[in-house]
């Protein structure tokens, strides 16, 4: 094997050691070496090798061009490893079931390892790859090439780097070459993120009762969080998105706002890149680190984003156990034996083994106090995403769509989105909302016939279906238009195309457009005619006010510049609704009692709230006090929700409710030693080396659209952002090609020694942006552009 840097041109910049070696390798544009030829700006592979052209633009964003998908994957794998090798390496440790070995034997690591080791033992990844390579029954050759190339590119960088500069994994034994199976296992883990992956500790905790009926299952806190959640959204993830059509934009062209809310640290960070195989694939946007295709982005004619869907991804089956045998269950009156598998993982303290149990529905799960395994009853789940091998081909097809109608056809044919909605707009000025995600086939008739009475209220309130597992008539079945059995077909999933706008902020599909509510869908997908979050309501108000020219900005309709201003306007809708009433009751009685009985003087709090500008800007004073008031449960309303006025109800503070004053007192007590009128930018920051970068935005509980969630530290404030606005993109699909703005809030690299560790974070702090650079003309106008080629020859 021969791995080479194939040259660098254009405005050399200071880079870490590997980049200096890269610059020294060659500087001739027309280089021919290692069986590779550069022709017309595109690297061409010979002898079944890999070659990719990487153009690094400002903020380190790679624009990668290759002649085939294997080489495109190589370039993506190489570039991502340059910037985030530790994140990718740790992700592979997880799916190799080795977290306990390298990161400690706490219960979460042991459960993770056992869960993933079982997937390895069951050859889950191998089974995903079996079947005709049509992109529906099994991944296509193009996608497999992309994965193969990504692996080769990552491994090539690992070989070339010699010394890793990121202290998170420098010198660590767990940073090793990866395999294609590692990548497919990581892909599967991403698919089941909101289903069996979220219930992993409940799967590991499932232990049959003893003869006397007792068992002491381990706690399953992650599974309990899933069971008690109000909907099926994965914990810790969310998003806002607008799709704007011809009647919503100043130009008449389609426009998109992408605003996913993801963790600022760890493996679920986004990574900006532009991937191109000339004539076959050309997409700019972002993907999760370690993924080879753009997941949120645009091509020349259509743009799309994702928001986390409310639909449930699994169903429960209540098993009637055979008397005297808690590992056998009755099915149509006949006994079926569970399959027991002992799974062993290695830890520093020695091997740890667990026996896990499966049924023909899927794994047995225990959530103590909610779904217990007794001598008479057990519970198994069917995970609708456990066999979803369609997603990478789906995202590839999305990137090739040329219109909303073509994108709808992709969604209908492939049904691949694991746990997200899609919001899109095209050059022709059409906007799309669709929850065409993978949803278990729980129709209204099936729910009525097969959910036992004690679980009907659970289904109505949260969409969790507990089916009678003793009858074959209660199996999930197949919709005639579904791509695979067991999931809802497109006709049973909500879709809306508009000429003005669609929007979603993680509530259900119901009010994707409030003048055309989507209704009549199975409860497993989401709720209807129920109260919307303050963030959802503000998101719609912002669009309506912009279209009417009633938001204080010039003109009517959206441009990419005023879309950016609206997105980062940092309004706190909860404050707009109740602040004045809250100040009145505060000033009328400037003393209150906390939940623990302490008496608090509210005088300073009243003054801080009166002076607050109702926003979460860096200079906003008192914003953190209102946030803590909201988190303490202070947003209590006097008026009830009205489904005929869902965007304006409830809205009146319940001024006579004593809990409001208690919540304010609790907020003041929590903020002891922090000035109540402090600037938000002084108490909400993100560390980058020795620098604390001030961060605007705020909590959804306060009704903030630009969501930022930081960890609280007594006497300090919020010194670290955990979650919130991550990749932000406002793109217009005009006649001259895509244009607009974008930023990655936490920057391109997690490596503190990278030049791209903090630059976009500072940019976000100042509400700045990087421009869309889709065309070569846009890219070559970048004064920081640096070009190099990477490749590997097989011998």
From TrEMBL:
InterPro entries, per the entry: Ntn_hydrolases_N (IPR029055), Penicillin_amidase_A-knob (IPR043147), Penicillin_amidase_dom1 (IPR023343), Penicillin_amidase_N_B-knob (IPR043146), S45 (IPR002692)
Listed Gene3D superfamilies: 1.10.1400.10, 2.30.120.10, Glutamine Phosphoribosylpyrophosphate, subunit 1, domain 1 (3.60.20.10), Penicillin Amidohydrolase, domain 1 (1.10.439.10)
Native species: Salinispora arenicola
Keyword field contains Hydrolase: yes
Name recorded for this polypeptide: Penicillin amidase
Key words of the record: Hydrolase, Signal, Zymogen
Family, per entry: Belongs to the peptidase S45 family.
TM segment ranges: none
Keyword 4Fe-4S set for record: no
């Amino acid at each position: 094997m021969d791995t080479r840097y194939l040259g660098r041109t254009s405005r050399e910049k200071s880079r870490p050691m590997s980049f200096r070696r890269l610059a020294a390798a060659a500087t001739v544009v027309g280089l021919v070496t290692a069986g590779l030829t550069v022709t017309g700006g595109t690297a061409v592979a010979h002898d079944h090798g890999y070659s990719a052209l990487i153009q690094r633009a400002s903020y380190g964003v790679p624009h990668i061009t290759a002649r085939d998908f294997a080489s495109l994957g190589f370039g993506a794998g190489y570039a991502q490893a340059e910037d985030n090798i530790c994140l990718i390496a740790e992700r592979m440790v997880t799916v190799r079931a080795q977290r306990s070995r390298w990161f400690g034997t706490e219960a979460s690591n042991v459960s993770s390892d056992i869960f993933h080791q079982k997937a390895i033992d069951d050859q889950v990844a191998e089974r995903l790859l079996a079947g005709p390579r049509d992109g529906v029954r099994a991944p296509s050759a193009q996608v497999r090439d992309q994965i193969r190339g990504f692996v080769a590119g990552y491994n090539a960088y690992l070989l070339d780097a010699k010394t890793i500069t990121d202290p998170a994994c420098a010198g660590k034994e767990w940073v090793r070459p990866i395999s294609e199976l590692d990548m497919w296992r990581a892909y599967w883990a991403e698919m089941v993120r909101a289903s069996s992956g979220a219930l992993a500790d409940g799967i590991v905790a499932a232990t049959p009762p003893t003869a006397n009926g007792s068992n002491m299952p381990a706690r399953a806190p992650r599974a309990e969080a899933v069971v008690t959640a109000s909907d099926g959204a994965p914990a810790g993830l969310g998003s806002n998105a607008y799709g704007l059509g011809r009647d919503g934009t100043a130009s008449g062209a389609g426009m998109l706002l992408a605003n996913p809310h993801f963790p600022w640290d760890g493996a679920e960070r986004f990574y900006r890149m532009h991937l191109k195989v000339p004539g076959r694939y050309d997409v700019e946007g972002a993907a999760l680190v370690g993924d080879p295709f753009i997941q949120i982005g645009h091509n020349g004619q259509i743009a799309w984003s994702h928001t986390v869907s409310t639909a449930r991804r699994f169903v429960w089956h209540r098993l009637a156990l055979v008397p005297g045998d808690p590992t056998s269950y009755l099915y149509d009156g006949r006994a079926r034996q569970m399959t027991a598998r002992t799974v062993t993982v290695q830890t520093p303290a020695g091997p740890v083994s667990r026996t896990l149990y499966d049924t023909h529905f899927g794994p047995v799960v225990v959530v103590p106090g909610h779904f217990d395994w007794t001598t008479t009853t057990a519970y198994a789940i069917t995970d609708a995403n456990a066999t979803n091998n369609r997603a990478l081909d789906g995202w590839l097809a999305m990137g090739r769509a040329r219109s909303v109608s073509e994108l709808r056809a992709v969604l209908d044919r492939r049904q691949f989105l694991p746990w997200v909605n899609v919001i899109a707009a095209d050059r022709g000025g059409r906007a799309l909302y669709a929850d065409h995600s993978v949803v278990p086939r729980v129709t209204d008739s099936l729910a009525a016939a097969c959910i036992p009475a004690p679980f009907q209220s659970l289904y109505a309130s949260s969409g969790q279906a507990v089916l009678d597992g003793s009858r074959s008539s209660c199996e999930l079945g197949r919709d005639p238009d579904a791509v695979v059995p067991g999931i809802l077909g497109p006709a049973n999933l909500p879709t809306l195309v508009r000429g003005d706008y669609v929007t979603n902020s993680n509530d259900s599909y119901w009010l994707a457009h409030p003048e055309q509510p989507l209704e009549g869908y199975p409860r497993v997908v989401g709720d209807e005619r129920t109260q919307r979050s303050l963030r959802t309501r503000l998101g719609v108000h912002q669009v309506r006010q912009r279209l009417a020219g009633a938001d204080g900005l010039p003109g009517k309709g959206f441009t990419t510049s005023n879309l950016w201003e609206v997105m980062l306007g940092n309004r706190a809708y909860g404050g707009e609704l109740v602040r004045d009433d809250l100040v009145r009751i505060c000033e009328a009685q400037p003393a209150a009692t906390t939940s623990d009985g302490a008496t608090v003087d509210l005088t300073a709090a009243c003054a801080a709230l009166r002076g607050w500008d109702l926003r979460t800007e860096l200079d906003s004073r008192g914003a953190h006090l209102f946030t803590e008031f909201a988190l303490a449960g202070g947003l209590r309303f006097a008026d009830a929700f009205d489904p005929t006025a869902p965007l304006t109800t409830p809205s009146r503070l319940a001024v006579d409710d004593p809990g409001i004053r208690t919540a304010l007192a609790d907020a003041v007590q929590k903020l002891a030693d922090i000035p109540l009128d402090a600037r938000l930018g002084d108490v909400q920051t993100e560390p980058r080396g020795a620098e604390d970068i001030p961060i605007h935005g705020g909590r959804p509980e306060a009704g903030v659209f630009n969501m930022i969630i930081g960890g609280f530290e007594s006497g300090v404030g919020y010194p670290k952002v955990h979650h919130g606005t991550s990749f932000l993109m406002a793109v217009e699909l005009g006649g001259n090609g895509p244009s607009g703005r974008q930023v990655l809030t936490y920057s391109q690299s997690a490596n503190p020694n990278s030049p791209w560790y903090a630059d976009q974070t500072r940019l976000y702090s100042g509400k700045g942006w990087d421009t869309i650079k889709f065309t070569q003309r846009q890219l070559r106008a970048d004064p920081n552009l640096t070009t190099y080629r990477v490749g590997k020859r097989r011998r």
